[in-house]
């Protein structure tokens, strides 16, 4: 399963997410990146696939543009306030499972304040964000470096204590050692 999950709103950051996806796929390989439109096969239950992908990733990148927080549904309510909103569910699941969540601020976006977020997403406001600006490639190089560290830590097996083997030779006798040293 993909180790890096891209969470974004199409109406807000589709272009930036596409460029980001291209760079990450190029560096980490397509098999290590989950982006809904590129990863979910035709006829697959996308809710199940997203839940499975978020649950097994090592890092979730929350791409946040200027409108991310205030995009509304057909009834005029903020989508982020809807408990069934996919972006909210993705981030909520990752935070709940202690998966590294990295906000990626694009298009001059600001980090959401805790007071602007639903209760379950307030921890997002405490995450150190990466601002992607005019130096796109330099900024993404910084992200790639951080992701390499995250992925190497999560893929390293825990260290085992060394296995001590019993010697098949008897220990030297104290008298023999003393006798040989004189």
From TrEMBL:
**Limits of the TIR domain:** 1-147
**A Pfam family it matches:** TIR_2
| GO BP annotation list | signal transduction
Q: Which InterPro entries match?
A: TIR_dom, Toll_tir_struct_dom_sf
The domain of life is Bacteria
Note the PROSITE patterns from the entry: TIR (PS50104)
Provide the residue span(s) of the region labelled Disordered.
153-182
Q: Which Gene3D superfamilies does the annotation name?
A: Toll/interleukin-1 receptor homology (TIR) domain
Protein name, entry field = TIR domain-containing protein
Q: Which organism is it from?
A: Candidatus Entotheonella gemina
């Amino acid at each position: 399963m993909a180790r890096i999950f891209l969470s974004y709103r199409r109406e807000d950051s589709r272009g930036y997410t596409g460029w980001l996806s291209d760079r990450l796929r190029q560096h980490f390989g397509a098999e290590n990146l989950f982006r809904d439109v590129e990863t979910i096969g035709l006829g697959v239950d996308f809710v199940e696939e997203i839940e499975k992908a978020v649950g097994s990733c090592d890092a979730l990148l929350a791409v946040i543009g200027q409108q991310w927080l205030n995009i509304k549904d057909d009834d005029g309510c903020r989508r982020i306030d809807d408990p069934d909103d996919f972006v909210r569910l993705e981030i909520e699941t990752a935070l709940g499972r202690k998966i590294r969540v990295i906000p990626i601020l694009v298009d001059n976006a600001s980090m959401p304040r805790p007071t602007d977020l639903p209760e379950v997403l307030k921890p997002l406001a405490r995450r150190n964000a990466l601002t992607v600006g005019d130096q796109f490639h330099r900024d993404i190089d910084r992200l790639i470096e951080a992701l390499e560290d995250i992925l190497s830590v999560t893929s390293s097996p825990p260290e085992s204590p060394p296995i001590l083997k019993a010697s098949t030779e008897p220990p030297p006798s104290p008298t023999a050692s003393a006798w040989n040293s004189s």
